Amino acid sequence: LVKNTNAGRHQRTTNPNFLVGTPGFMAPEYVVDGHNDARSDLYSLAAVGYFLISGRYHLDGETSMQLLMKQSAEDPPLLSSVCPGVILKDLDDFFAACLSRDPGQRPATALEFAEQLEAISARLPWTSRQAEYWWSTFEPRGAEDSSWSYPSSIGLDTTRVDTDGMEPIGD
After folding, report:
1. CA–CA separation, 81 vs 97, rounded Å?
2. Whole-angstrom Cα distance, residue 99 to residue 170?
3. Predicted confidence (pLDDT) per residue in 110-137, tens digit
4. 15, 20, 19, 92: which is closest to 53 by C-alpha?
5. Burial category of 93 from C-beta neighbours within 10 Å (exposed 0-12, middle 13-18, buried 19 and up)
6. Burial of residue 44, with CB atoms counted within 10 A of its CB: 0-12 exposed, 13-18 middle, 19 or more buried
7. Is the pTM of this model over 0.70?
8. How far apart are CA 141 and CA 44, in angstroms?
9. Is 36 in contact with 51 (CB distance < 8 Å)?
């Protein structure tokens, strides 16, 4: 008896009738019609960034199907509404554009995405020490726990951080 080990090697492994990916990070146009391009990838990247900043998914649903429906029908809440008092307007606008259901509102290329984000970060004089301090005081509890909040005395507004002692400054 002999088994042909080459049989089926060149067969397609992904069925074109199925969506492939993590529902919470799929671009709306991919969910609706399977269209995917660089702007779709930037949507997904922004969804990851939204989660990293807020500790929450930009949209939620109890099932994958509910989440996919929201992807195609709703824009996510602004970061500033999820993290009140700590998100700069420029960063809020950046994420709103990148997570827009309309791909035309998003940066066209990864370079454009990076340049816009760099322009925002250039206005934030954060040092590595400040970032390390921030993350040592911030403990996200996960997307399923909506009771956590950012520390009230420190945020993305770096003017409120004492760079020498690395202690939060009160009002």
Report:
1. 15
2. 34
3. 999 999 999 988 877 677 787 777 677 7
4. 92
5. middle
6. buried
7. no
8. 22
9. no
